[in-house]
User: Fold this.
Amino acid sequence: MRIKQLSVFLENKTGRINEVAKILGKYGFNMHAFSMAETPDFGILRLIVSDVDKAVDVLREANFAVMLTEVVCISCSNEAGALSSILEHLAAQDIFIEYMYAFAEGDNANVVIRPNDIDKCVDVLKQCGCNIVDCL
Amino acid sequence: MIWNPNKECMSRDEMHSLQSKRLQKLVTYVYHNVPFYRNKMQAMDIAPEDITSIDDIVKLPFTTKQDLRDNYPYGLQAAPASEIVRVHASSGTTGNPTIVGYTRKDLAVWSEVMTRCLTAYGITREDTFSVSYGYGLFTGGLGAHYGVENLGATVIPTSTGNTEKHIRLIRDLKITGIACTPSYALYLAETLDKMGLSKDDISLRAGAFGAEPWTENMRREIEERLGLKAYNLYGLSEIMGPGVSYECEQQDGSHICEDHFYPEIINPDTLESMPYGEQGELVFTTLTKEGMPLLRYRTKDLCTLMEGKCACGRTSVRMGRIVGRSDDMLIIRGINVFPSQVESVILDMPEFEPQYMLVVDRVNNLDTLQVQVEVRRDFFSDDIGRMLAMKKVLSDKLKSVLSIGADVRLMEPGSIERSQGKSKHVIDNRELK
Assistant:
């Protein structure tokens, strides 16, 4: 029901994202989704990868500041209004979303959500019949 | 114009003989009145009789800022307390402040040398002169003030602050001369703009700028925006205050009042004397001081000395612009900043690695300080708000310790260059040429 997301601390500097991508590629980890949050001097790269625990090890080995964050990933239909109907349930139950990112492919869209209260979020999503995915 | 041609234009032979006589007297005086110097000289097996000429100065011990701190407050004072009529003190951002006591004669010498500077800038008794250095323990305000009075010009003791009122006084009192830091001069120019005024509304024609390093570009900008001629004024409280050296109309180095302050250039690592023309650390001996005379005081300022008669007629040795500091002290916006101050703040915060780098630059003539720190892995958070809060805590602490704002940059662990041996914590990109 929950997915471990990899968060990497990066300086805002040309080539840093590629350093992470290169290491993951070298060890055969595939990136399913990612997003980048930025401030003027640093950013946080958030990734969903295959075999996340091992990915943490190789990135730490390469001196990156890395942490795991639990997120919820849902799948919904790739059509107008689909996301809104889900978010309405979350808002109604007072669940705050710290950040989210999404990607669509064909008829489906996947949405990664980082809520303030992950247990409650999963419950609410279950109750409203939302399709929670265990891996991307 | 030259205030005291007898001294300022003395032949080199006469100057050598005057300096030699004064040094002999000084050494005897400190030997008998300052245990610190007597002990040092005895340890080096030197007696006052061994000093027969100014050239013997190389036999004498050096004095450092640390010596002044170690002998806080009055340990290096040579004159009895009853003879001291005024005390000034340095900012003392690290450790004890430096206390300097002046006798009546010291103050007279100070006024004399300051008057030489003002005269070289073309100031006469017809001028109205604004002293906009801080008045107080800092030597800038009162030092310049008494020079202006000694000259016979009208002094307006504006000190610092309330810039708009200051500009109204400059306009309404037809102030023609000003002494302040070069960065304050630029701030005055900006305020002038903001008030909808220009250099045509004021009558400034000469400015004495010092107390912080500045550049030819700043000089041009100050001259252009305030409509005056900008001269360098050098000094340091340990030696006297403003008035140690000054530019003449040639603006080719600053003439040192070397009948009172004997200059040397040394290699800061080997402490060996260096010849004229070579860059090294500037050292001064106060040839005539009574309150707190100093032998071979290491200023930490790096520059060159030039000899040869100047086109203005003066024969005194000139010093070039200060190009840097031989210790790691930085002067940023006129404030002394030590990397150790930044270090102590960072070491107190477990969120950061004990690695840091100070990057100093000058953007639009204003000094900027960036502090780069590495975030410890355990303290990295996926929550940007928390990371920004961590950054703000550090910024606030730095601001309270340094008294100037620093732009904090959070860096990845391991990203700041580690050096072998003596670690490097400062990148100074300011070009002071």
About this structure: The longest strand of chain A covers residues 66-77. Residues 21 and 125 of chain A are 32 Å apart (CA to CA). The longest helix of chain A spans residues 16-26.
